[in-house]
Amino acid sequence: MLAQNERHPKPIFSRLRAVDGRSALHKSNPYHYPKVVSADPPYKYVLGFDRIQLYHLLKTSEGFGSQVGRYGSAHPLSRHLAGRVALPDKSMFRPRDRAAISLGDALYQVLHSPDGRRVLETLQPGGRDTAKAQVSVTFDIDLFTVKGEKCFVKQEALKQAFPEGIPCVAVLEGRERAGRPYLNVYTFYPRLKEEEARQKKLLT
Known about the structure:
Elements (H helix, E strand, L loop, with lengths): L3 H4 L4 H4 L35 H12 L14 H6 L7 E4 L6 H12 L2 H9 L5 E8 L5 E4 L5 E4 L1 H7 L4 E12 L2 E11 L3 H6 L5
């Protein structure tokens, strides 16, 4: 016979906890959407999230597949964050750097950029849009060459090669649950191609 908590598992959102022991996203509301839908754009509320909350938004998004059709140019978030699959001529955040201080900060910079604000102010439930921005380097990355070889690029080298920041891309989906909007990050990655990395002498 299944134990009580196996028969009625808690939602993944309620199992996430911030460092102070509170709910990862809201003390009274563990789901990352507002209790009351206002007249504002439905996903603009995410601009009020701090870096820790955005990190947990990434973690909850990582566990869910896409619900907005088929897009051949994007890859699920778990593939970019976990490093499980080699994606030729693609780059991803290095797994050991999946911490709030780096990923949460990177996503914060993208969402608060002009392009990020545009997406959050225009995205509607059932839609998907892409935000791009230059992000200050606080992370290492893995770069997969066109032959599928994985190369490790250190944070220090990235900072020297991109003093103004490295381009990062966030593909955002608008969703609804019980009539309330919540944002899903379909994928999030630093955009660095092999050719550019070689030009900047990041690869030997």
